[in-house]
Design the sequence.
């Protein structure tokens, strides 16, 4: 079991972020195949992620990526991921991945602007 944990701790080889109008797309590359899923955590300061509940919900997601749509314009977010392995009634999580920062979420421009003569 200890050997598996060492591999889990190094599951995230690379990550990237893409900003949308009001979303942040997280992508990563896993280095092992025995992962049940992934949990993603967010904070608004470096090293201050909230680990009480993953932003993807209580069930780990099967892909190493997530689109965070619960973000506010102008705010910078920081993210880490954990790999999750479920083996019967036992659940093991990896150490945190590297931290990725989003930069400020862009403010969406106004749309349908019209000029009305007076």
Sequence:
């Amino acid at each position: 079991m200890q050997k598996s944990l060492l591999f889990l701790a190094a599951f995230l080889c690379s990550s990237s972020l893409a900003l949308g109008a009001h979303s942040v797309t997280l992508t990563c590359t896993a280095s092992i195949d025995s992962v049940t899923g992934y949990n993603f955590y967010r904070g608004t300061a470096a090293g201050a992620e909230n680990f009480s509940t993953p932003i993807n919900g209580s069930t780990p997601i099967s892909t190493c990526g997530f689109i965070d749509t619960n973000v506010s314009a102008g705010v910078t977010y920081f993210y880490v991921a954990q790999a999750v392995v479920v083996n019967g009634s036992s659940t093991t999580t990896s150490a945190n991945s590297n931290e990725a920062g989003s930069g400020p979420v862009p403010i969406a421009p106004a749309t349908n602007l019209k000029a009305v003569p007076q």
About this structure: The radius of gyration is 18 Å.
